[in-house]
Amino acid sequence: MQLPWRAAPRAALSSPLTLLVSIATTLLLGFVVAAAALHSSSAGSAALAYQQSRMCPHSVHPSLDGDGMPLAAAAEMAARSDLGAAYTPIGRPDFNGLATYGRFGYRPDALSHLTVVQGGGTGLWVPQTIATAARVQIGDRLTGSSLVVTAIYADLAQPVSGWWCSEAKTVVPNPLGGDGASTSVIWVASSSDLALLPPEFTGYATVSLRFPVEPPATLAEAEALRDKGNARLTSLGLSLTRTDLLSGAITAARTSERNVSSALLPLVIISVLVGLAGVGTVTVQWAQRRHSELRLLWVRGASPLSLGFRGVLELGLPLVLGGLLGLVAARLLLPLYAPGVVLAAGTLWVALGLVLAVVVLSLAVTVLVAAWRAHRTFQTQARTRRLSLVPWELVVAGLAVVAWVRLSHNGLGTALKPGSLPRVDVAALAFPLLVVLAAALLATRLLRWSLAWSHHVQWWRVPAAQLALRRLAAAAGPVTGVLLVGVLAVGTIAVGSAVAGAQQSALDSKSGVFVGANSTVQVSQDIALGRVALPSSLRGNTTLVGVSTGALVVDPVTFTDAAVLNDAPAVRSLLSGLRRDGEIAQAVRIGRSANQEIQVPGLPLLKPVASLPSFPKLGTRGYVVARDSVPAAEQVGSWHLWSSLPLSALTSALQAEGIHYTNVADRGRVLDGLPFLTVEWTFGFVAAIGVVLAVVAAVALLLAVEVRRRQNAVSGALSTRMGMRPSVLWSSHLLEVGALALLALGIGSVASFMSAGAAVPRLDPAPWLNPAPMLPDLLPLLGSMVTCGALVVVVAAWLALRGVRTARMGELLR
């Protein structure tokens, strides 16, 4: 009696196919749970990295700012930080009798981050604008001080480098502001030089204390840096204004991580249940193959539970090995499915714990299923009621209806405010997946009924189709299982890709509407009046736009060169038809604006003659008038350059021509994209799970063909001996496998496209901005799935014919 138990682990080698299926089943189980843990952790780290990318590097560590203090006190406070700066109030420094507005400042290593135009050394560094206005030359002495000018540098302008980012409001002047409102900084070489300044600059100084640090990679590191930084600021005991941007970034990243985790939890649970059902199926097949041995052991006194542990002795090692391989695969493939590769400390241990948990569950399922099978076979008769009689598709369809109600009423689950993250409603997110699952269950039930009825079909005029149908009917169980997994795979990939792609395009289109173009800057009215010419490098990609309260003044000829538009030719045609008749100017009414004549300050009386549902910068409310219809350009509120170029290219061209600008806007940074990224990351993992299911479906199909190799060999060899041409047999196997793949692809794609099309507009992280998310072009995805499916079909048909070509008739008959 001891030999069968001790030899059980080695007995598994007698059935390599079962061994392979056992390893593959828990490998996928382990991969799903481990990948979910790793993906959630990487989502938190990626969210933190994204938030930090929108912060000034020197603002990651909590910082201090103050004003209205004596210059000596400001210099003393600045010296207590790693990177402190002190600035004098704006005054009129005098060089050789010519005074202009300016201020002095000191910041360690500031001189090395400036572009020298003339000179150098360790004296006063004067900005070029002040040097030009006051006719400052190298060697000039500041009146009332012993400090001498040793260098002239190029003024700082937006966008500034990261080193200057936290000081931009102080060091970057607004050239369009009033006199004395802002100015460039005259830099001194050392903090001791501040004491040498004239008395009028020694009061009402400002100070900034910055603490440069390496950006934290994980949330735990960020929290430690925040706590340590705030404690450090408290220990300084300075009565200054504290700025802690890192806390907001941590909160947003934590919320994003929780949203991703909560949204993935139902999908992971369903995947685990499906995987455990697969383990149970493997155990049932093992019990069928070991029927004689199990009966012998039962006759000799072994209980059903002990026979269940006999299954663990044979299948346990493959199950454990598969789970560990799943963990390894999840870690190695992390860059392919996760938003980042940085993991919080201990995440791998959490993933290992989850993998061990599902391995233990798999072993428990093996014991229970084997024991139940032995009990039902040797002690009681099978019950007539089966779970297959339960209308599971109706249950899932009911859940889909509930999810749709929540989705249609709540969207992502909460009424959002600008800058806030959505608290994801898991039930709402599950709607498209529930629709796919209901379609998969309905398709398998209908297929099972059809195969049961298929013996009435007589297609002998098309022998390839008749034989394919007979083979499908003879393997109804594996066929319906492959169809179920295949529909789920196709649908999950399509839903995940559709929603993730919609979030990407929604962020891009919303930011385009919000800014109007890829980049914009405000300029003086001199360009509109023709006093300053637009640089030649900006012609063909830039347009001048006037902004008044609720209205835009555009140039119909150049507007479509730069603005973000869905249908540029139609907009160009509409704008080119705008005219002015006396005191009334024709205008385009946007969205919900009143369809009546309206007076906008600085513009003539506007009369709507056409309408558009939305427009860049205006959104869904406002009016658009042609520039030629505006009699006085100086009365327009403000003038802006819109460009299709990146912001750096636009500002560089303006700086090269000496054109002043302010209020820069970059399409890529104007909106906080983390709410969009959170939903995108969630459904990106859904698509990754779909790829896993697709691999499962393909492997299951190939294994089903391989298991029936002897049967196919007998059937095919006899058919060819009876006169069937090899091409007909080849067509028959292609029809058999191809029909299954085509059903899975068709049902999965239709269900997913319809459900995603209904869900995508309501999964809007920023509903106050237009346009709403739209279903992306899914034809490339469909084409790739068709290509992969065709490849699997050809391989499966080749495997089926391989046994026929190599079969020996004598051995088959014997």
Describe this structure in words.
This protein has 814 residues and is an alpha+beta fold. Among the domains are: 148 residues, no CATH class; 268 residues, no CATH class; 149 residues, no CATH class. 54% of the residues lie in helices and 12% in strands. The chain has 26 helices and 21 strands. Strands 12, 13, 14, 15, 16, 17, 18, 19, 20 and 21 form a 10-stranded mixed β-sheet that branches. A 6-stranded mixed β-sheet has the order 9-5-2-10-1-11, covered by helices on one side. A hairpin with a 2-residue loop joins strand 13 and strand 14. Helix 10 packs antiparallel against helix 12. The protein is elongated, with a radius of gyration of 36 Å. The model has no long low-confidence stretch (mean pLDDT 86).
Major sheet details: 10 strands, mixed
Q: Give the helix tally.
A: 26
Question: If you compute it from the alpha carbons, what radius of gyration comes out, rounded to the nearest whole angstrom?
Answer: 36 Å
Distance between the termini: 35 Å
Report mean pLDDT, rounded to a whole number. Answer: 86
According to DSSP, the number of beta strands is: 21
Spans of at least 5 consecutive residues whose pLDDT stays below 50 are none
- Overall body shape: elongated
Beta-strand content: 5-15%
Helix content: 40-55%
Structural class: alpha+beta
Protein name: Putative ABC transport system permease protein
Organism: Lentzea waywayandensis
Keywords: Membrane, Transmembrane, Transmembrane helix
Transmembrane segments: 263-286, 307-330, 336-369, 389-407, 427-451, 472-495, 681-705, 734-758, 778-801
